[in-house]
Amino acid sequence: MTIIARKSFSTLPPSWQQSLAQGFHHPEELLRALGIPPEHPELRYEDKLFPMRVPHSFAQRMKKGDPGDPLLNQVLPKKIEYNASVGFTTDPVGDSLAMPAPGLLHKYHGRVLLVATGACAIHCRYCFRKHFPYSSAKPNAQDWRQTLDYIASDTSIKEVILSGGDPLTLSDARLASLIKKLEKIGHLERLRIHTRLPIVLPERIDQNLIDWLGGTRFATIIVIHANHPNEIDQEVIDGLERLMTARVTLLNQSVLLKDINDHVEILATLSEKLFEAGVLPYYLHQLDKVQGAAHFEVSDEEASRIHQQLMAKLPGYLVPRLVREQAGQAYKTPIT
User: Fold this and answer.
1) Structural domain that includes position 249
2) Domain contains 215
């Protein structure tokens, strides 16, 4: 296969990095911008461990004057997050037990996950890695050598998944450098990137990103994360179309969230809008039981009922698989 030459990267900060830095970081600012009174007894205004972070482009899709907006309530810190809930932990999917090398998770046969960064463009309040020890788990230069050696030593590994945090918060130069190192491992065939940026910060899909994605020898899959049809506007659609020019496969995974998307009509509309934008619905995750997210939980019985209604409403290729990730299991557990 011919490898397309990579372009050199500008040292000037691109517009997406400026947008990333200029988002909302305090609930009062966001609520005032939406025309919602910022004084509310349920809100938590200071959270040093997991502070609010919302890009302006995502906030612009929220309905002004509506405190019940489904996009707003995915990101707004609330006091209820600090209530102890039985069965909810700081490591709900067993990441700490599956790290044979710094920054590398090896849970499933044939693929490994690299925690490329702890940074995200948006802090979703249900995030299963909101308590992840990024500072101690993030590889330094020497650790990366150990991590790459681990991958090179196991010829059963065919796919590398970049996750985080969100790997697309890294610069194109850093990402391209990492991919060049992975390309030297001959038994690797696929690159998968898990990212929310094409949804929450679509300006991230710039020409530099397209250039290095189009230049890799890997079969590349990008798994985006949209939970509600209101998250997909024309700017997002345009960004997804740009990604398709780099010959990537686009999939979506959602999380089933109480009072956000726990309704068959919402999920059906989301699947339709995704498909129109060139994205195939992939997974509908049951909530990972991370400490602080119990108020988002939908019961398995209700989740199954909604999923059955979805199967009756849509063709099979538009119905994401309803699953839960369980620590120590060899695959995602289907929920029926």
Assistant:
1) 86-334
2) yes
